[in-house]
Write a structure and sequence with these properties.
The chain is mostly helical. The chain is built from 28 helices and five strands. The strands form two sheets. It has a three-stranded parallel β-sheet with strand order 1-2-3, sandwiched between helices. Strands 4-5 form a two-stranded antiparallel sheet.
């Protein structure tokens, strides 16, 4: 974020203001701190300094001198990595009130705000600051010709991160590449961050490459409690929207199952230790303390966030064989989040959709390979449901093209996607495009229904509904259709009620009798309200629940068993396709 540069500017300003002693300390390791304190004690000739004493003893003498001296002083502790280890070496309050301590760190531990210390959060540049930096940096290097209309877009793409902007500016100067070309390389190439931010571009003296700096604390976090979960958790978070996702995602079954599998496979964990939601929550706080993510409950449905470049760096360092499992977990977790969310609340729905978009952008075709592409259809239907036809049309055009490429033109899911595209056309007042699209699909649907087609269901088996391969597929199709009709036509529309009745029948055939009778009773109430109690459709709906209850209670079987006993047993009917009944032959017999 440029925290070291800010501290350096503060140090120079302190010298300009007449502060008598400024001590700069690399605080990444406690040994370096004691060594620098001992050197300072020697240079200012503090009482109690003994040349032959250890660095620790002389460092303590220096801290005692800071507490009692009437002189003004400033101690800067740069890059604290272990706040607990730093506690004994924190400079004491000045008795004269003329001493100050300034520390920089990536950590967010509570201990940092204790002892009278005040925490100042350093964010990324604002859009204006980023634009100013780029213009000044390129102009100073006599490379103002590299500035173009894409400068603001480039700064936004880099997340306004000072570290990334400094490297990008140096790269453009070295290679004489304008902002637009660099932006294209960054967004449309397979180049890694280390290639886009090379080591020779470290002109600001950060001391490390961007990707390494972003993930600096990860290896340390991996060894902290809960041990072995920091890296798997950050891999998962890197697939989601950097702008944030809800904490509840981390309490879902998919995430817990994934973390358990990673814990079991970790060589750093002694013995099995099951991961539960409390440990999943603990790993979020661990990553937050080490500055790798932001976990902020006040942000609501976007409580868990991370910088886009941190996410990209993490994806680049994720092994290829581990990626499918991460993508599948992200898809399953978002599925749970979607099913458990209140989709009528636009803000909550928008968060889920942006996370689906992020997962698709990160995973690409891999999302289809692990069976997570149903999320894309849900997201597209949500656009239609919210009346965003102008956005739904290009979305479904892209989705149908991908489905045709990966699944095939005649695949049922491709045909479903094309039907949704036709619906988007209709809502966008493009009726001709909609009907032309549906007309193109007629041959494919006829092929699926063709008797000789290999996917057609044999008639000597119980025939599922609506040409589906199984009753479960029929139920899924009907539930989907009912949701669309309720959203577009209303709950009391006759076609919606008819679809609800068909779903009840499908439930009955699947053996879900309670669901079936409950849903059909609702159909009866709707039909009686809309059509009257004497209408044939209402009477039909009223008769069926009574017959179903009779069947489920056994009265049907008892009644027909008496009739069967009165007859001679008939031979078993031959297996094979059903045949038309010849009633005259029965009369002859």
């Amino acid at each position: 974020m440029g925290k070291t540069q800010l501290a350096a500017a503060y140090a120079h300003q302190a010298l300009a203001d007449g502060v008598e002693l400024v001590v700069w300390v690399d605080a990444s390791e406690s040994e370096q701190v004691t060594t620098r304190y001992a050197q300072a004690a020697y240079l200012v000739n503090v009482p109690g300094f003994v040349e032959d004493e250890s660095a620790i003893a002389n460092a303590r003498a220096f801290l005692h001198w800071l507490a009692v001296t009437p002189r003004s002083w400033l101690v800067i502790l740069d890059d604290i990595t272990d706040p607990d280890a730093m506690q004994p070496w924190w400079p004491p309050p000045s008795a004269s009130g003329r001493g100050r301590v300034l520390a920089t760190t990536r950590r967010h531990d509570a201990i940092l705000s204790g002892g009278g210390r005040a925490v100042v959060n350093i964010e990324t540049y604002s859009a204006e600051e980023a634009d100013t930096y780029l213009r000044e940096r390129l102009t100073t290097a006599h490379a103002a010709h590299l500035l173009d209309t894409q400068a603001n877009t480039l700064a936004k793409t880099l997340g306004y991160l000072p570290l990334a902007l400094s490297h990008a500016a140096a790269y453009m100067i070295n290679e004489d590449v304008p902002c637009a070309d660099y932006l294209h390389r960054f967004t449309h190439s397979s180049a890694r961050l280390d290639e886009l931010f090379p080591r020779h571009a470290d002109t600001e003296g950060y001391g490390r490459q961007v990707a390494a700096a972003l993930l600096l604390s990860l290896d340390v976090a991996q060894t902290c409690e809960p041990v072995g979960l920091a890296i798997p958790a950050l891999r998962l978070a890197a697939m989601l929207d950097p702008a944030g996702h809800p904490r509840s995602l981390w309490a879902g079954r998919a995430v817990i199952r994934y973390l358990n599998a990673q814990r079991a496979a970790s060589s750093s964990v002694d013995g099995p230790s099951a991961v539960d939601p409390s440990q999943a929550r603990a790993v979020l706080r661990l990553l937050h303390r080490y500055g790798l993510i932001v976990d902020d409950a006040q942000a609501g449905s976007r409580a868990v966030r991370l910088h886009a470049l941190t996410a990209r760096a993490m994806r680049e360092y994720t092994p290829g064989d581990a990626l499918p499992n991460v993508v599948k977990t992200a898809a399953d977790a978002l599925t749970e989040l979607w099913l458990g969310s209140h989709r009528h609340e636009r803000d909550e729905s928008a968060v889920v959709q942006t996370n689906i978009d992020s997962l698709e952008g990160c995973a690409g075709d891999l999302l289809w390979e692990v069976g997570g592409h149903h999320l894309l259809r849900w997201s597209g239907r949500s656009l239609i449901g919210h009346g965003l036809a102008s956005a739904a049309v290009p979305y479904w055009q892209r989705l149908t093209a991908t489905s045709e490429r990966l699944l095939g033109r005649a695949h049922p899911k491709t045909l479903l996607a094309r039907r949704e595209l036709a619906m988007a056309y209709l809502l966008d007042d493009r009726d001709q495009d909609a009907f032309a699209l549906l007309r193109e699909d007629f041959p494919y649907r006829e092929q699926i229904l063709e008797p000789d087609h290999p996917e057609t269901i044999r008639v000597d088996k119980p025939t599922p509904l609506y040409g589906c391969k199984s009753i479960d597929d029929a139920i899924a199709l009907l539930e989907d259709t009912l949701a669309v009709r309720e959203r577009l036509l209303g709950r009391e529309d006759p076609t919606t009620i008819a679809c609800r009745a068909n779903l009840a029948i499908a439930y009955w055939r699947a053996g879900k009798t309670l669901k079936a009778t409950s849903l059909l009773e609702r159909v009866l109430a709707d039909r009686e309200k809309a059509l009257g109690t004497r209408h044939p459709d209402a009477l039909s709906a009223a008769d069926r629940p009574q017959r179903w209850r009779g069947l489920s209670s056994g009265r049907w079987w008892n009644r027909w068993r008496k009739r069967l006993r009165a007859r001679r047993p008939a031979p078993d009917p031959p297996r094979g396709p059903r045949m038309k009944t010849d009633h005259s032959a029965h009369r002859d017999l």
